[in-house]
């Protein structure tokens, strides 16, 4: 169970990161001017789409790691 929780948490956290990068790449594809493309890490959308699932996944992995 311990390894399962650690893997599940890692998958959730990695999935949140991959989805956030995918969403930003899709948005950059529709961005037509030549301004620099950067990820906005500290916005409300980032909180809901990336940070919240990432922290939940990290918490699950931490609980699996601390479980005896």
Verbal overview:
The radius of gyration is 15 Å and the shape is elongated. The chain has one domain. The protein is mainly alpha-helical and about 70 residues long. The longest helix is centred in the first third of the chain and has 28 residues, at about 1-30. It has helices at about 1-30, 45-65. About 10% of the residues are buried.
Mean pLDDT: 84
Distance from N terminus to C terminus (CA atoms, Å) equals 10 Å
Number of helices: 2
Beta-strand residue percentage:
under 5%
Q: What spatial form do the alpha-carbon principal axes imply?
A: elongated
| Unreliably modeled segments | none
- Which structural category fits the helices and strands? mainly alpha
State the helicity in percent bands: over 70%
Number of domains: 1
What about the largest sheet? none
Total E-strand runs: 0
Order of helices and strands: HH
Specify Rg, calculated over alpha carbons: 15 Å
């Amino acid at each position: 169970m311990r390894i399962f929780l650690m893997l599940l948490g890692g998958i959730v956290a990695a999935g949140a990161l991959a989805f956030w990068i995918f969403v930003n790449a899709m948005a950059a594809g529709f961005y037509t001017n030549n301004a620099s493309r950067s990820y906005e890490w500290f916005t409300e959308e980032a909180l809901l789409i990336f940070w919240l699932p990432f922290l939940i996944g990290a918490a699950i992995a931490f609980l699996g790691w601390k479980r005896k």
